[in-house]
Design goal:
Blueprint (H helix, E strand, L loop, with lengths): L10 H4 L1 H7 L9 H9 L8 H12 L5 H19 L5 H15 L3 E2 L12 H7 L1 E2 L1 H14 L4 E4 L6 E5 L4 E5 L5 E4 L3 H9 L12 E2 L1 H18 L3 H14 L4 H13 L3 H14 L6 H12 L12
Parallel strand pairs: 1-2
Antiparallel strand pairs: 3-4, 3-7, 4-5, 5-6
Helix pairs in contact: 3-4, 4-5, 5-6, 5-8, 10-11, 11-12, 12-13, 13-14
């Protein structure tokens, strides 16, 4: 099924960017974009989050071996097990997991270059030991899940956190701060450290992040990285992958139209932005989008600064 229901182009063209970047392939169905769509179509418990992230990276690194990096995660889990012999107490496993990632493997948050796109690619995070809270957290999740630990992502504003759901207590772990452990009732203190005490904790801030939530958060960050440096082609690729997750998201459909316009693909931009206005009546940016459409129909690339993308 076409991931953009209103787009009347043949399905293969929706994946044209991915296929062009990869060179010859045996079948369009084997491109990273197609394989990512297949992964997203799985149920929450069947979806392989690490594989999805590696398929995102494979558009940037065509020769990347997804299976090799999945095996790297397996090896990290085996390293934790080997150090503990027959010990299976969850909190002992958790402590050893944190030591393995942050002490022995020296993984850390990339504070010097937070917006380096390599922080978003799981292969780079494993190779370099640097990442953003989300990708470091996903490494912790994937290794922890292999160990049978009750870990889940948390949709916290600001830093992405990991929750350990124990029988007697829940803990929050900060993957960007060396896996620092907090009791869940200390979440307000974590929030204060980010927002200086002006934001009050809400229950929704501690909501579990499912695999699609985490993938969308990653792609949204990657989109912002590329928009900020004017790399419209890669920003568009990020948007189109977000639309695999949320095909009718108004903001992303507008973003796609604006980016197509900036790339000189005027006919596609007009169609996308027309659809956006039709599906988002009364949107606050209606006049601005209408002005863009007038320019596009006149053959002019709009002087849009990409604000709000």
């Amino acid at each position: 099924m076409c991931p953009f229901p209103r787009d009347r182009r043949p399905v293969p063209q929706l994946f044209a960017q991915s296929e062009a970047s990869l060179g010859p392939v045996s079948s369009p169905t084997l491109t990273p974009r197609r394989l990512l769509a297949d992964e997203i179509a799985r149920s929450e418990w069947e979806m392989n989050l690490a594989r999805a992230l590696l398929l995102v990276a494979k558009e940037e690194y065509p020769q990347l071996s997804v299976e090799l990096y999945l095996a790297r995660l397996d090896q990290l889990a085996e390293e934790v097990k080997d150090r503990l012999a027959d010990e299976t107490a969850p909190l002992v496993l958790l402590d050893e997991l944190i030591k393995t990632l942050y002490v022995r493997r020296k993984m850390s948050g990339n504070q010097k270059a937070f917006y380096d796109p390599r922080n978003c690619f799981l292969n780079d995070v494993l190779d370099r030991g640097l990442g953003i809270p989300l990708t470091l957290g996903i490494v912790m999740l994937e290794v922890g899940w292999r160990l049978g630990l009750p870990l889940e992502g948390v949709s916290f504003p600001g830093p992405f956190l990991i929750r350990y759901k124990g029988n007697a207590l829940d803990l929050l772990l900060d993957p960007f701060d060396g896996g620092k452990v907090h009791f869940e009732d200390e979440a307000q203190e974590v929030l204060d450290g980010v927002y200086g005490g002006v934001v009050q904790l809400k229950d929704s801030f501690l909501r579990k992040a499912d695999r699609r939530d985490m993938l969308q958060r990653l792609l949204t960050h990657l989109k912002g990285v590329y928009v900020n440096v004017g790399d419209h082609e890669r920003a568009l690729a990020a948007v189109e992958r977000i639309l695999l997750l949320t095909p009718t998201a108004p903001a992303e459909n507008r973003s796609r139209g604006v980016l197509l316009a900036r790339m000189g693909r005027h006919d596609e931009a007009v169609e996308q932005l027309d659809d956006y206005l039709r599906d988002s009546p009364g949107a606050a940016n209606t006049r601005r989008v209408e002005a863009m459409l007038r320019d596009l129909r006149a053959g002019i690339t709009p002087a849009d600064d990409l604000e709000g993308l």
